[in-house]
């Protein structure tokens, strides 16, 4: 029996939801037994899990680099989005059925060879590129989904610099791009 991409996506969404439930019950992410999953889900991958309630952002936590198994990364980041995003109170049991769950699986990041902010803005592919800006210890990351709310490339970079704590462009700023594959589950009953 072969495992389809659609069924792997459902497994990942089930892991995310189960990890949030486990967090509500035990206060920890779902422990993942990698031996029970297809090999694809045990390969290292970076993910972000984003939660929405009635269209409003409710939490978003992720990994910028692939360093643990995909299934484990989803479990930890789903828990983090529900309970550790410092912008929000923890998700409650009453909210669980109303949450939309979005998982972004990050592709590899590659440098964007630019020497100025204007060059970076011109090099961007709106709607497609996720971007990581780094300057020393400062770093900020926007998923490609951010283009849905910030469609202008100049504004996109300005907001990302703010997030990273980078006040102005300097020769020390490094930019990387990545793409994502996104999967979603809408709240039950919607």
Strand content: 15-25%
Q: Can you tell me the CATH architecture of the largest domain?
A: 2-Layer Sandwich
Q: What order do the helices and strands follow?
A: HEEHEEHEEHEE
Q: Tell me the number of structural domains.
A: 2
**Mean of pLDDT:** 94
Backbone shape: globular
CATH fold-level name of the largest domain: Glycoprotein, Type 4 Pilin
Strand elements, count: 8
Span between termini: 32 Å
Q: Can you put this structure into words, describing what you see?
A:
The chain has 190 residues and is an alpha+beta fold. It folds into two domains: 5-106, 2-Layer Sandwich (Glycoprotein, Type 4 Pilin), CATH 3.30.700; 110-179, Dna Ligase, domain 1, CATH 3.30.1490.150. It contains four helices and eight strands, in the order αββαββαββαββ. The protein has a four-stranded antiparallel beta sheet with strand order 2-1-3-8, covered by helices on one side. It has a four-stranded antiparallel beta sheet with strand order 4-7-5-6, with helices on one face. β1 (46-53) and β2 form a beta hairpin. The radius of gyration is 17 Å and the shape is globular.
List descriptors.
alpha+beta, 2 domains, Glycoprotein, Type 4 Pilin, Dna Ligase, domain 1, four-stranded antiparallel sheet, 190 residues
């Amino acid at each position: 029996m072969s495992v389809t991409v659609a069924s792997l996506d459902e497994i990942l969404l089930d892991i995310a939801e189960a990890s949030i439930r486990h967090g509500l019950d035990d206060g920890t992410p779902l422990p993942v037994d990698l031996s029970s999953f297809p090999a694809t889900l045990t390969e290292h991958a970076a993910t972000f899990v984003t939660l929405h309630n009635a269209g409003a952002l409710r939490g978003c936590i992720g990994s910028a680099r692939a360093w643990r198994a995909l299934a484990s990364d989803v479990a930890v980041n789903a828990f983090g989005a529900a309970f550790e995003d410092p912008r929000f109170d923890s998700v409650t049991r009453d909210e669980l059925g109303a949450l939309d769950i979005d998982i972004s699986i990050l592709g590899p990041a590659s440098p964007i060879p630019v020497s100025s902010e204007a060059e970076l803005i011109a090099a961007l592919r709106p709607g497609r590129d996720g971007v990581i800006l780094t300057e020393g210890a400062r770093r900020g990351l926007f998923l490609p989904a951010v283009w849905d709310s910030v469609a202008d490339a100049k504004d996109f970079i300005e907001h990302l610099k703010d997030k990273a704590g980078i006040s102005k462009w300097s020769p020390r700023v490094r930019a990387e791009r990545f793409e994502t594959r996104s999967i979603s589950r809408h709240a039950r009953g919607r």
